Protein 1
Amino acid sequence: MKILICEDESSIRAFLKINFERNGFSVIEAGSGEEALRLTELEKPHVAVLDVMLPGIDGFEVCRRLRETHPNIGIIMLTAKGQDLDKISGLEHGADDYVVKPFNPTEFILRTKALIRRLEDAKGIGEEGKLLVSRVFTMDKYSQTLRKGEEYIELTPKEFAIMKIFLENEGKAFSRDELLNLVWGYDFIGDPKIVDVNMRRLRAKIEDNPSEPQYIETVWGTGYRWGKE
């Protein structure tokens, strides 16, 4: 597996490179956001590790651009200790996970491997090749596409997995923990707020008015459900 490490501090970058290579990864190094974008186009890494504070383009902007151009890449943000806003902002820009400095290299590698497993599982979602239809939405599990009427909606792998769960279980209320386990896996050790962040992103993409959702309904005290027509 190829991993891109974008970190402007050479000592941290070298430390990560050694540990990932010891665990069988092919490591690509970048010292700036601009270099990370260029190397992603050339090398097509499976996962990108992005430091939030970078010279020039910051990690959030790199994350946003990568998610637009490479929707299937795994993205992990490196954030400073105690910077909760950085964590939330990273998730809202399309990151899959985050790691807080200072970090345990073994935990970092385990979380990266868990992310890769989830990405590989998401690729196999549509082997049956059947359509899911609900209200104005049509999901093709084989091609992993979603249409609202005639309009195609771009989704990240996590957003697609959430929509698949909803469309297969119309009207069923799911707790945040259930969605976390079904989409991110039982071994996910990040912040459970990632569920709410992805719901906000999904609503922004599919709802006519995200502030008054008519498709993804909030079930107070529980979580979310796909509303029946």
Note: Helices lie at 10-22, 33-43, 59-69, 84-92, 105-123, 157-168, 176-184, 194-206.
Protein 2
Amino acid sequence: MKFKIDPKHDGMLVRDYLYHVRAFSRRMVKVIKYDQGILINGSPVTVRAKVRAGDELLVHFPAEERGPHLASVHKPISVLYEDDEVIILNKPPFLATIPSVHHLDDTLGNRLMAYYDQHNIPFTLHVVTRLDADTSGVVLVAKNRFVHSLLARKQEEGEIHQTYQAVVEGHLEENEGTIHAPIDRAPGSIIERCVDPRGKAAVTHYVVVKETRETSLVHIRLETGRTHQIRVHFNYIGHSLRGDSLYGGIIKGINRQALHCSSIRFPHPISGHEIYVEAPLPEDMENLIT
């Protein structure tokens, strides 16, 4: 990871620059220091060295160990965007994002590890935005734990913006609207959620993009990120997602919930430049509205 030293930081110690300007944790600096991974203009230095305006500070992160369930699976992935710090993928439906008790052998994470091996990326999986197995679309991944920590902070501060598209049953009364309804666990279930006044606040904004005889394609922006929020909210207003059997959707023309993460926008954790990436609507959802 490279940093160009700004004149206003001239004379700072490397460790202070990393702590206060680049938001490295003390633990992270300690790991890098003992791995001798800090260079200024190509020459190895200690954290007590001073940076000068115009210097190129290069930080090498040590290789990371991968968990026992992150074996490489050599199957295709769709890369929408990639640089030295992040990679953005287009996840197909019916593929879990990360390994779990129910998905151990083949996940997006396992496939990404094979991609890392092919491109000599010595890190493990750091997913920033997860999707349910049956939901398709944009997934943001940090390439190392430092970048992951920066993006997790941006996520908490509401700086990572995702949009979704869904095909819902019927025609909504309003072509544009907002659903305000708190969400909690459904009684007796560890998976299902429901609208409940005792739950956490949840806000969903939507715009109708297209209507067919039986369904509507809606563009969705979340103000909060509750589990199953989109599915629960549209079921609550009487317009369940097509194919979503858990929340009242009709299984017709598609055998999953018709939900797709269509875009993501966020400030790059190192450069600060805005990154905007889109993923096209998948074929099974496209077929529902043509």
Note: Helices lie at 14-21, 26-34, 108-118, 145-156, 229-236, 283-286.
Protein 3
Amino acid sequence: MLTSSRGLAASLVLASFTLSAPAFAQVVNPADEVEEDTQGPITISANVAIASEYRFRGVDLSGGEIAVQGGFDLATNSGFYVGAWASSLDETTVGYGSTELDIYGGWSGEFASGLSADVGVIGYLYPDAGPGDFDYVEVYGSVGFAMGPAEATVGVAYAPEQDSLGGTDNFYVYTDVGVGIPGTPVSLTGHVGYTDGFLTYTTDSKAFDWSIGAETALYGPLSISAAYVGAEGDIPAGAYDFVDDAIVVTLSASF
């Protein structure tokens, strides 16, 4: 997605931000979802969300409006997974149509006590974007660390040269941290990322993004999160400010 996740998406709006997924919109790591069936060789899981706006690596892709999102994953006992995730977009400001669809596959698992990895490939698709090249492919990888109630992830995502990226490439590196507050259902989260390439909506193709927030379970599969999200970059005079800071609230459910 200018952009999935202008994908691990993450993605990441906080709805696409997870501690163990790549920071692209909208990829949701199957390991982070509630499993429906742990008895068979394949686990099927799904997620839905409504967010006050869709942020991808700090960039506003819904024009500051509410975004409806959702996806599903198929994961094997060996750690391989495939999935799809979608979000509504703002047609006027973004110019990629009204829908983003992310298709992805990869492997995730623990390779040592407290250490995990996630690698894969994701395609960002814009089915109603109109004439022109918009779809693109990105590869991603991350390493996660867990110690007690705290977790941290370091990851990268790279989109090679493609016509949809203006004939250039895009490189993204990020760190996510999270810690659960003992005795409560609340977790605190933080994120810092850096983009070098086409997917910044800035004049110099470079931007830092960040978020700090909290999330908590509500009832059953429902949870809610809130984060202060932003990105730093030069916006052309008179253009829509895609990287203006915002508070993003997301109500989500995993099944």
Note: Confidence is low (pLDDT under 50) at residues 1-24, 26-38.
Protein 4
Amino acid sequence: MIPAHRVFSPRRFSSQDAAPLYIRVKKLVTAAISNSELKPGDAIPSERDAAEQLGVSRVTVRKAFTELVHEGVLVQRRGSGTFVQDNAARLEQPLSRLTSFSEDMKLRGLATDADWLDRSIGLPTPEEAMKLSISPSDRVCRFHRLRRADGVPLAIEHAVIPARFLADPQAVQRSLYAALDERGFKPVRALQRLHATALSGQEAKLLRMPEGSPALSIERISYLPDGRTVEYTQSRYRGDAYDFVAELSLAQEQRP
């Protein structure tokens, strides 16, 4: 990792970029964070020092820093200075246990809340119908929300449930699994697929991360005891906040 002040070297401040100066300063900071040159908790040079190093005005630097603070990338502490935001402790999630986000956070003593981005009922898309093993004419409930723990945004979740199991989207307040359990349709097993991805601009804004930050994309298909598919969920988890852990054992050789 290079010293923080070297991030603001003039040679890094591209003269070929036609964007406004304050945008170029923002790009400089977010690129250094994405490349791990600046780590969570690292101190940022003062507005005056950064302006002198880059050869721009303090007003330009102030505007860039102010927007980065608003976006959750930086944090300013009175009397201490400006720092890279460090508000997401890493969480371990076992892959062998089927639990909801609310249950996961409750086990860790964290308070959960969510911003509802969409809560609606309608016909499934071809992909949703295939994943849920339902007819294109069957109705589904959709739940799209930003999930937080102790106020920190950790995941964006888009869940789809056949309306035969949950007919009213407004019935879900905090926990989707709790609502399903109340109706006798809580899933007992699931298949999950995980892969690495990068946050889009909109996803990054919701999760207060720089655009292009690493994330975990998770697809979950859950089943009832009788084998019916009850849930299809796609989620984006912050790559800096979550570790998914699996316990493995060596297969025993079978003897003749």
Note: DSSP finds seven helices and eleven strands in the chain.
